[in-house]
Amino acid sequence: MKKEIPIISKIDRRSFLKIGTVGSAGILLGLGVRCTPSEKILDPAWFEPNVFVGLNEKGEVTIIAHRSEMGQAVRTSLPTIVADEMEADWSKVKVKQSVGDEKKYGNQNTDGSFTIRMFYEPMRKVGATAKLMLEQAAAKTWGVNVSECKAKNHKVSHSSGKSLTFGELAQAASELPVPDESLIKLKKQSEFKYIGKNQKIVDLADIVTGNTVYGMDAKIDGMKIAMISRCPVAGGKVKSFDKSEAEKVPGVLKVYQMEGVSFPTGFDKVLGGIVVVAENTWAAIKGREALKIDWEYGINRDYNTDSYNANLLKASNSNGTILRENGEVKKVLNKKGKVLDEVYTVPHLAHAQMEPPAALAYFDETGKCQIQAPTQNPRWVRDAIASQLEMDRENVIVNITLLGGGFGRKSKPDFVVEAAKIAKETGEKIKLIWTREDDIQHDFVNASGMHRIKVAIDENNKVTAWNQHGMIPSIGGTANPAAKQVGAGEMSQGMVDMPFDIPNLCLETHEAPTKTRVGWLRSVHNIHNAFAIHTMVDEIAEARGMDKVQNYLDLIGGDRIIPFDKMVTGFSNYGEDLANYPWDTARLKNVLKMVAEKANYGKSLPTGKAQGVTVHRSFLTYVACVIEVDLTEKGKIRIPEVHYAVDCGRVVNPDRVISQFEGGANFAASGALRSAITFKDGAVEQSNFHDYQVARMTDSPEKVFVHLVESDEKPTGVGEPPVPPFAPALGNAIFAALGKRIRALPIEADKLWA
Amino acid sequence: MAAYTINVNGEDQKVEVDPDTPILWVLRDHLQMIGTKFGCGIAQCGACTIHANGNAIRSCSLPISAVGDMKLTTIEGLSKEKDHPIQEAWLAHDVPQCGYCQAGQMMSAAALLNRNPSPTDEEISSAMNGNICRCGTYIRIHAAIKTASQKLS
Fold this sequence. Notes:
The complex is a heterodimer of chains A (754) and B (153). Chain A has 754 residues and is of the alpha+beta class. Chain A is built from 20 helices and 30 strands. Chain A has 3 domains: 13-208, Aldehyde oxidase/xanthine dehydrogenase, molybdopterin binding domain (Aldehyde Oxidoreductase, domain 4, 2-Layer Sandwich), CATH 3.30.365.10; 215-299 and 357-433, Aldehyde oxidase/xanthine dehydrogenase, molybdopterin binding domain (Aldehyde Oxidoreductase, domain 4, 2-Layer Sandwich); 305-349 and 444-752, Aldehyde oxidase/xanthine dehydrogenase, molybdopterin binding domain (Aldehyde Oxidoreductase, domain 4), CATH 3.30.365. The radius of gyration of chain B is 15 Å and the shape is globular. The longest helix of chain B has 15 residues, at 138-152. The chains are: A alpha+beta (754), B alpha+beta (153). Chains A and B meet through helix 5, helix 7 and helix 18 of A and helix 1, helix 2, helix 3, helix 4 and helix 5 of B.
């Protein structure tokens, strides 16, 4: 076999590129860091200019995808950024998934809609560095000045006309030192070849032929299947159990008790329960069904959704903890004039990503814990396994499979830790599988949200006061018993960053204990915050007799940058400094005006059809939404069209931004029309897709138009921002069509015509 | 345990499994054919859809003892060269996001066009309503089926 000649080398550790910080965790990207021989992730015959790019003498390029793919196209979009700056021919690029190693790759926590935001510039530098080294290699080969050499479309040409292909330059480039960062020149926007243009996803052909491997598909010779029967109430434990019938099921190999954690459980601990290990999945399912278990339910057995919500509503009559205040809201609310006082509720939601949690774990002959898992956060998997199995994190190897959806569920490493623990206990190669029932009943649900909003409108039809009471269990309460209500950090997702220019304003939260595992789900607290706030905005417009768009523009007020960090203690701008990603009302108003124009908002529609409008910034992206409903057929909510106007800064892959909005509309339609997780005696009342319903094709908006603002601003994410403005826009449209105000989700379609 | 011979993608396959084992797990665990996905186990989501004699069925709810001489087709057998009109339409419309449900979606769509090459919009939605896509690719699925239908007719 012909030896492939390595390329581009001689990188020293001084050439680290600092790429900024997210939150308090500084991130270094190993642009100038080579893989050590033992760490090599490309074919051993290859050589890497940095940990992201490899090139061989045939001109084949491999680009490392270090973030998790769950449908948002990161495996495609980040590598196209590299290829563009490198002047690599995309058809000669292969994409390879990295292992979990944040020292090498930088942040791999694929969450918070921040992949493109965080890695747009670094990936450009990764590609541009490789390009410069190839140009330098050509210059050296020809004995000319590098300024006379230009890389384009997989070759470097000299001003005299001669050229060498990237493959031909691989060897020479491999002998060069990595250039200083100051020498790296990024392209002008007009020079982009792939950035800003549609690119098909790299896994497309494999998906349509059934050749993809998700965590559920991971396998290794000799592997056994494991399932766990967990306590129906989070934090409960096994009192006693009888495994005799389970052990009689053919194929069942071992049944034993796994210790679990009491409540608060945290995010990475195992719930424990009775483990069934079997030769195959069906034997595991049947073995588990045959278990008889007596549970000790623990402190959450009193969690009943109805009584819990009734208590929250009572709390809204008292004074809460003030997160943001200006003026004298309570005095103004007692003055003459109109006062609106309404309550909005949104239930817990389950992720219900199509692939339930699953993970393969085993210990290899050297004692390393080998993992294959659909994780959004490989670092957390390593840390959680290392701490809970008392081993060195360097001995936990996390291979990241494709994710059959994530939406935040697979940020938590609990299910992977379960697999690792069973592998250790049994000495077997274990694939742990969650069924759909496990997934719905033991999820980290999104926080429920109840908001009571009081608004005063004076005799001049001006909105003079806004007082909002939020009763919302804290995500923090899943780990910290002291977190009995949400604070400003969590409520920076759409509540305390309310952009309205109202002279008297008071935003407060009340105690709302966390009584189950509450986590984060696609757009998180924005879901209930946006529903409450943007429904109230519509109610205000009705009360004022104003056009809905004009009402919004009036409430938002003048163009300005809002310094929320100076107004709210503990404010978080999605982990970014407001100086870098300001809160800009001009951009907010711009998308609102754009969507109104594109959707022809206010157009004449026949009886039973109407439009609703909202505008909301989340995850640093500005989104306005107009939804048209058709309620002409009794009992059926049809959504003929949705218009989104989106300002997410520079767009890398427009078609995949559009697809995120199409999909986000459907994800939000699930929450608006179908989905609710409720609790009785501490246990989730739903168990599968028959009672935890999600949007199906007949619920889907028929058309989703996505209007992208042309922008040179820094790119921001689009995974989550489609969701928050959808449900309130739909509710507002329903009100416009039927006069029925939607203040609780999911919408009960059968009651609209009652 | 019992021995069965089932026909999958035109080939007879021998397996020895419990009679109530759903075909889904026979495919995935015993025949190592992982293109057919597990989503719910109770015929509610369609991720496990395959064809039995050309009709879409949920393989999670069909026990092997009921298969007999049915001819089963999975995503791996939909075409040899990824050139089934449904696959071509899926590629052209860039339908998938995470992709996990798409094998089931395509098998349902292909079965629909088998029996009704020119479905109306309502017939498409009704036929596809048993297939959940949590990424929400319904609009493109619908459009891709229209494209494939036009090619067939």
